[in-house]
Amino acid sequence: MSTTQSERLRGLLEPLVTARGLDLEEVTVTPAGRRRVLRVVVDSDEGVQLDACAELSRAASEALDETDVMGGAPYVLEVTSPGTDRPLTELRHYRRALGRLIKAQLTEEAGGGELVARITGVDDDGVEVEVPGVKGRKPTARRLAFTEIARARVEIEFNRKAAEKTEKARQAAASDDESQEEA
Q1: N- to C-terminal Cα distance for the chain?
Q2: pTM score, two decimals?
């Protein structure tokens, strides 16, 4: 996909996406036999419902039909939400992954290597994480600046309920601490 086509598609689709309270994450055009696939990836802080994808797909289809941005060759429009293994590249991605387990590849300046940890806080400069303890040891807190993270992804957790219970207990304890401080 040429930069010009990419820019034109983004310029056409972004207002439709933001009008629905969504973020435009990615626009790609890939060949698929005699056709092309135009994939529009959207997300929001609350996630993306199927109805929102369907509504956006109809609006995008109408807008695309009114322009020549896709040219005359046939294409398939696909509106979707990001997969569970998508890279964390923006502040909003980390914010949406709060409480989730991530795998981060650290930069050489941060010591290199891979780190698996749970995000416990996010601000403009980086993330607070909890590194699970090994062999019965307690988890440890660590701060990672965004400049120390080369790549990161959310790790799929098959036993997420246990992780959610731990997070809820932590939040309840923090809330109790705040209540006691106010008293």
Answers
A1: 61
A2: 0.72
